[in-house]
């Protein structure tokens, strides 16, 4: 089986949450909610447990990983090995990478996702951490170094930079800044109530908004001065609503 | 002589205003300020007259065109024929097209700009009206029909769609929406205190920000439904700070 990732730009509506339950096995799904990103995990867990329950998943539980001791606790392993779907809530993506990065939980999730036994989903911060390099913050005007700060993600989907709440928060400048600095990475801007569902080397767009792909791979001129505006000439851009697919290594929309 | 247009994204600093005076002839420049776009023309005229005076232009005057009768008044002609530079202030671009469009002033300005005897500058609304199609309004999230409303401009620079205050107001979605609807037009997003200076079929970028060019000319898939997100696959994008040039009909940055 190939690994399946459902990466949601925040504010997932019923259709996307229902799709996750279906991907995880429908009524037989065993879903684990991880609210490590949230500063109020009680609320985030309760909200998501109720939502997945409403969508017909019979086994839904929260796995509270509030610090690295918990993320290295051997009692995590049987919970995750029994799961068919794991869902990361929103909050602060650096809490996820700081608490889970390099722990036994991290290693085991990589194994289960690669083997295709677990569908891994994340929304907002839970989406950002999926990529090899994640956008941590940055709202500056224009395309510049000051407009973005990045850090390493958990690398479930290497070769991409993911931004979320994309249209709603007008984040294209920081995504363009990031791909100008790291043109190896494809920039994916995911709107709210919108997701990509990966299938091997491609993804499909789901939900009510669009995914914006920015590709500086064939840019002819990139200059990233310490201060002032970035030069980025020859960048490709694709705005893809639901129903479209994109090939990651080919760097182009798929018919 | 070729026509010279100085198209400013708003909030022009001293360097850009000084450059306009220099292009219009330096100390010998004869500058005419047209504040038709402004709802407070007294203030807009006074501000710009003082600025051009500070930059050493000895002949600076305001031409008050508050309605179509004024714009068709034969007394406009000697004023404009004596000018070496004409500057349109900001405000509401539809006031410019509604009051000046098709009048004797419009016809005469087209002639003088084409002949190269007048350098034509405009900031903000005065920039928007330069293009064949101008963006009138639209701030909706995402790339969609609802995100932009366009109308015909005065066509000093055909083949482009100009947006201003570009990075500062996060306007890329409305520019992408516009070029998806009208891929014939090159989309130019000009930041504040930033300008393009045209030279025949090319332009140079001046000022402290950047010009973002979006080009849907080679887009492979464009779908613009009445409601919901637009599809725009294969769009090219260039972020060009000062010192860069762009070839308009070639649709590519110039070395």
TrEMBL record, chains A, B:
Organism: Paractinoplanes pyxinae
Pfam families noted in UniProt: Peptidase_S51 (PF03575)
Matching InterPro entries: Class_I_gatase-like, Peptidase_S51, Peptidase_S51_cyanophycinase
Family indicated by similarity: Belongs to the peptidase S51 family.
UniProt-recorded name of the protein: Cyanophycinase
Cell membrane as UniProt keyword: no
NCBIfam families given in the database record: cyanophycinase
EC identifiers of the protein: 3.4.15.6
SUPFAM superfamilies xref list: Class I glutamine amidotransferase-like
Broad class of enzyme this protein falls into: hydrolase
GO molecular function terms listed in the Swiss-Prot or TrEMBL record: carboxypeptidase activity; peptidyl-dipeptidase activity
Chemical reaction(s) catalysed: [L-4-(L-arginin-2-N-yl)aspartate](n) + H2O = [L-4-(L-arginin-2-N-yl)aspartate](n-1) + L-4-(L-arginin-2-N-yl)aspartate
Gene3D superfamilies in alphabetical order: 3.40.50.880
